[in-house]
Amino acid sequence: MVQAAVLALAVLAAATPADETLHDFVFRHFVSHEVRLLANGFTLLGTTEVAAVGLLGLAALAHRTGDAPMWQAAVGGVAGVLLAGLATQVVKHVACRARPRLVDGWGVGAATPPDAPTRRGFFHWPCFGERDYHGFPSGHAATAFAAAAALVGWAPGRRRWWILAAASGVGASRVVLNAHFLSDVLGGALIGWWAGEAGVHRVARYIAPRWRARTSGPVPRSRAAA
Question: Do residues 138 and 170 touch, judged by C-beta distance below 8 A?
Fold first, then answer.
């Protein structure tokens, strides 16, 4: 139900002027230099390189300690991050959604003159090689939520909320930095969550059993006799 609600909200925001109106309101009235600095830190967590290195480090620690659930979550997260990256690139080139325009000298899109309403339109086909029209979905949000989806099933108690809060912070940073609209972030979060769950499922089914068999080693004769 939560995923369906997020999807409905993303479609509603993308299909109406509410998306751009909300974006401009937040950007003009709540974003400051300090907020941008904090957002830069969060958005770094949503890069494929940082997420993959962090998950691989967690997998190495799990391998060393023999923690099978941790290893499965970390490796599944890596698979989910890679799958999310591939999926977002495909959707970006299909949707051809414009990124937010330049506001007060900050942003990734070009400034939109008031006499050019077509530039305020959200879609433009084809968009191969045109980065300004690769807005939907947010790749950073997809990466962050792919990692979160893989880790929440393993993390105990309150740590799950910290993981979700970090992923949400990555998504919010993309709006604050004027790189994506809210619907871009919501769409990326959904794709990332699905990719993370798929990654964990595939690892649990095909890779984890082999890893357990290899790390457990042969059964000693005395135990086998017993």
Answer: no
* C-alpha dihedral, 128 to 14 to 198 to 131, nearest 10°: 20
- In tens, the pLDDT along 57-114 reads 999 998 888 888 898 999 999 999 999 999 999 988 888 887 876 554 455 555 544 4
**What is the token pair recorded at 52?**
């993959």
Residue the block writes with tokens 């890596």: 78
Burial environment of residue 223 by CB neighbours within 10 A (0 to 12, 13 to 18, 19 or more): exposed
d(CA 132, CA 109): 5
45 φ/ψ angles, rounded to the nearest 5 degrees: -70, -20
The residue behind tokens 């045109």 is 130
Q: How many CA atoms lie within 13 A of 83 on its CB side?
A: 25
CA–CA dist 191, 72 (Å, integer): 20
pLDDT, one tens digit per residue, over 40-55 is 899 999 999 999 999 9
DSSP of 146-161, one letter per residue?
Answer: HHHHHHHTTS-TTHHH
Are 67 and 151 in contact, with CB atoms under 8 Å apart? no
